[in-house]
Amino acid sequence: MSTGNAGDGTTSARQARTRNEPWRNWAGNVTARPVREVTPASVEELSAAVRAAAEDGLKVKAVGTGHSFTAAAATDGVLIRPQLLTGIRNIDREAGTVTVEAGTPLKRLNLALAREGLSLTNMGDIMEQTVSGATSTGTHGTGRESASISAQIKGLELVTADGSVLTCSEKENPEVFTAARIGIGALGIVTAITFAVEPVFLLTAREEPMTFDKVTSDFDALHAENEHFEFYWFPHTGNCNTKRNNRSAGPEAPVGRFSSFFEDELLSNGLFQAVNSLGRAVPSTIPAIAKVSSRALSARTYTDIPYKVFTSPRRVRFVEMEYAVPRAALVETLRELKTMVDRSNLRISFPVEVRTAPADDIALSTASDRDSAYIAVHMYKGTPYQAYFTAAERIFTAHEGRPHWGKVHTRDAEYFSSVYPRFGEFTALRDRLDPDRLFANDYLRRVLGD
Questions:
Q1: 303-138-129-354 Cα dihedral, nearest 10 degrees
Q2: Is the separation of the CB atoms in 321 and 407 below 8 Å?
């Protein structure tokens, strides 16, 4: 039942409603109270909702699953929910691409591609996000040559501030394409994404403990010798867990059912939840818990299709800060972080995650024009994190670090203009596409200026 034509600037009764409850993100550290919430069932309805918001003098933001720890999607205006804009529009096997609706969760895309014998080349380790939310904030995995999910984009469709639909690629509106692959919601609302895909392949994962001193001393070799290398350091210990993923000719040898339950569910989620709750209640127990936790997972090797190797269930909620530093500065930065923790009274129950990415050509990519390494620090949900994050951020920024757009940080436009060579290109494009700042919010005002 409709109150008007979806194309005439009005919104339908079934797609718009006044929001009474506040919106909260996954971690619970961001809250917003939008005036109304819209769940468009088509691009036309989304365009109408944007035009209606502009006519009413309201700001507009789209939100996926709320996995960002920043207020990138928060608004006191109109909140767009894309959960009806899901599914694959087209698979072009000759071109090696798939076009998918923006609200599609990564886990559904991965499953659908696998059924078609296809896969993304690389991905992060969490697959709950929508494809538009993940790419708009620069979500990434780890890779020697293969970069973030956004770097695998071949085309974009977005609704701009006047309600029109703009498509872009390397050949069509290339200046928009260069910037919009990581747009933080500042240029418009993404409605569809075309990704590069390839025939599904096998990865062999090798997980094993390693000391902090060894992994930092051998980091350059470990990075060079493996297509995908990452590791976790457990604060208050000298212990790390490492993971090496490399393409394999097979045969397929997935994680056994018992090992999957024991290590991925019982230890990494169930027991980890319990010990974090204990640590939050009694912080003095954390160093001892860390020593036990860092030795809990044993070495293992398995071979499977990409999303079953790259991704893992994450049920323990946390707050996170992540910075990209020049890859050559990783070891020095990480050693400074460890020294800071060792000399402080901080109690850190979550491991520090380290990954890498090659340079790319996206304006606001954390790997824009430089080979990068990522250091992610976490605190269990409900635990005070400000002192730890502030001290860590001081170290990261001393190395010209670039914070992940969807994770906690305190940087502003002045800082970003000094660490992103193409920052001015992005803000100039924003001025052209959204001169009245329909898609602005407090977060964008801070990080991009106004």
A1: 50
A2: yes
